[in-house]
Amino acid sequence: MSIPINRTNRCTRSPSSGFTLVELLVVIAIIGVMVGLLLPAVQAAREAARRMSCGNNLKQLGLAIHNYESAFKQLPRAGTLDKDFSVQARMLPYIEQSGLFESLDFADIAFTGTFSAKVPNPRFAKAFATPVPTFLCPSDPAPSTTLVNISGVDYAYGGLNYMASYGSGKDQNNDFRWRTDGAFDALGKTGFNAFLDGTATTVLMSETVRSDGADMT
Questions:
Q1: Helix (H) or strand (E) holding 147
Q2: What angle is formed at CA 160 by the lines to CA 111 and CA 78, rounded to 5 degrees?
Q3: Cβ of 65: how many Cβ atoms within 10 Å?
Q4: Coil/strand/helix, residue 8
Q5: Which pLDDT does position 113 carry in this prediction?
Q6: CA nearest 135: which of 147, 145, 124?
Q7: Tell me: the pLDDT tens digits for 76-115?
Q8: Would the pLDDT of 129 be above 80?
Q9: 183, 86, 172, 181: which is closest to 135 by C-alpha?
Q10: Backbone angles phi and psi of 94, in degrees to 5
Q11: Sign of the CA dihedral running 160, 164, 166, 167
């Protein structure tokens, strides 16, 4: 006796919809190539933005110096060697840092000790350790606060990428007891009228790299 077979009840397998190992490796390779191509472009875009920020800082400092000169008819005083406040400290109210400026007392000394072993006045140590964004270039990998070791003790200072020009350093121009041939000096009596060849050809400030590592290095 024969048994009829219903061919419609046979199990059928649908084609697999997953990736094969080869296909998966190909996809991973393509993604890796795309990331390799895009990453440098992203990094370049970020660095361009950082450099733009650095340039904007210089522009803000230039405007601050002009506003200071307009108010006092002279540029910020460089301060006397070893113990006085800097040009940058005197500019603070003009870069929206009035609160930090008010924590300083320019009638008092800023430091004690010799040139190579300056120690901050304890009154101002906290203010000195405060980073000011306008003084920092984002392209510099150094931390926002610099540590200086004097006789085994670490002293913190807010980082600074923008230096004031004191001049050529020739003859007596490197000694703050005399008026230097740069834009800033200890006597503090230089105004824009002293720039006989014009402000467009005179260096006020420049950007410098701090980078990371020992202070003396």
A1: strand 145-150
A2: 50
A3: 23
A4: helix
A5: 82
A6: 145
A7: 888 776 678 989 999 999 999 999 999 999 889 888 887 7
A8: yes
A9: 86
A10: -95, 0
A11: positive
N-terminal to C-terminal alpha carbon distance within the chain: 102
Residue with tokens 């490197």: 174
* Helix residue ranges per DSSP H, 73-185: 87-90, 98-102, 125-128
Burial classification of residue 20, based on how many CB atoms lie within 10 Å of its CB (0-12 exposed, 13-18 middle, 19 or more buried): exposed
Phi, psi dihedrals of residue 19, rounded to the nearest 5°: -80, 145
What are the φ and ψ backbone dihedral angles of 64, each rounded to 5 degrees? -60, -40
CB 76 within 8 A of CB 106: no
| Calpha distance 189→73 (Å, rounded) | 8
Residues 6+ apart with CB under 8 A from 186: 77, 78, 79, 80, 81, 84, 176, 177, 179, 180
Residue pair 101/93 in contact (Cβ under 8 Å)? The answer is: yes
- Name the CA dihedral angle for 163, 166, 67, 199, rounded to a multiple of 10 degrees: -110
Question: Within its chain, how far is the Cα of 85 from the centroid?
Answer: 20
| Whether the predicted pLDDT of 66 surpasses 60 | yes
Nearest to 83 by CA among 104, 114, 127: 114
The residue type of 41 is A
Cβ–Cβ under 8 Å, residues 51 and 139: yes
- Rounded Cα–Cα distance for residues 123 and 120 (Å): 8
